[in-house]
TrEMBL record:
Any Pfam family matching the protein: Mob1_phocein
Gene giving rise to this polypeptide: Mob3c
Claim: Zinc is one of the keywords in the record: yes
Residues that bind Zn(2+): C83, C88, H165, H170
Keywords: Kinase, Metal-binding, Transferase, Zinc
Domain of life: Eukaryota
GO molecular function, one term: kinase activity
Protein name (database record): MOB3C kinase
Organism, as annotated: Bucorvus abyssinicus
Amino acid sequence: AMALCLKQVFNKDKTFRPRKKFEPGTQRFELYKKAQASLKSGLDLKAVVQLPPGESINDWIAVHVVDFFNRINLIYGTMSEYCTEKSCPIMSGGLKYEYRWQDDSKYKKPTKLSAPQYMCMLMDWIEMLINNEDIFPTRIGVPFPKQFQQVCTKILTRLFRVFVHVYIHHFDSIINMGAEAHVNTCYKHFYYFIKEFSLVDHRELEPLVRMPQGRGG
């Protein structure tokens, strides 16, 4: 399964394109458009992440979790040829931080994986959650489950680790590809969002603590 999984990761035509779409005509689609419009308007990112008046916080979080998943998935997709079993045999953020994978099915205990394996498990796990109607309901009037924000915290915490790994281990590649401004903007947006709603434990943020603005900016 892992070999197949990795084959999919590196077959860029098949993966690394936004996989979850918001249905036009739904409230969440309108929210998504509103969020994108304020993002493009050049507003301060701290203002962009704030909950618009009268909107539901869970809807706002849902829209952002899906959008960040799509965008970070694409960022990692463009980097993935530099992140190999050989270059990154463990999923780490520098010498001090190592991330182990755990889920409720295959890996019941925290398990050491290479960075590409970890990323593959992570993207599949998030995709499974956001496509699960019991967790991310898309039908109007269907309430969010009680544990919705806890699930989002777990998703966002793990997505933050993608930034940690990419910034610390692949920053040269980001610069060589001319993607620095794009990655920094995405990181800043993500960072201000999780801070605004206290969605990720501050200890998780420590590996990048000196760069809330993104590297080099």
